[in-house]
Amino acid sequence: MTTRRTFLLCWVPVVGAALSGKLLASPPADALDEHDAKAESLGYRHDASQVDKARFPSYTPGQTCDTCQVYQSDASSEWGGCPVFPGKRVNAKGWCSAYQ
Ligand code: SF4
User: Which residues pair with 31 in a beta bridge?
Assistant: First the structure.
């Protein structure tokens, strides 16, 4: 039997996370895999703050895919296209060493 307390303990955090975007922010099916060989070689990360700065000293904080000249923005999504990774979408807040 589900009590009110059980209901609140189970569902309030889930709904809260969804509303805060934590669950809604899961990558789309065609998102670039950070562990793809090319993505690895270019140091791509969905979150630019996670870039290996020792390996990629050209990274400057504030650089993200959505400020990159080749990013193909999709206004309805936080994921967009990139010609460096054809057929895959990258995160607007991502970065790789092909940034320009
Ligand atoms: Fe992002 Fe630009 Fe790298 Fe493409 S080339 S993954 S848009 S930083």
Answer: 89
Please write the tens of the pLDDT for every residue from 10-61: 445 544 444 444 445 689 999 999 999 999 999 999 999 999 999 999 999 9
Report residue 80 as tokens. 């967009």
**Dist. CA 33 → ligand 1 center (Å):** 13
Distance 26 CA to ligand 1 centre (A): 19
Q: How far is CA 42 from CA 2, 79, 88, 99, in A?
A: 50, 18, 15, 10
Query: CB within 8 A of 28, min separation 6: which ones?
Result: 77, 79, 89
Provide the whole-model pTM: 0.78
Atom of ligand 1 nearest to the CA of 42: 3
Which of 46, 77, 82 best tests ligand 1's pocket when mutated (most atoms within 8 Å of CB)? 82
Name 64's Cβ contacts closer than 8 Å, sequence gap at least 6.
48, 92, 93, 94, 95
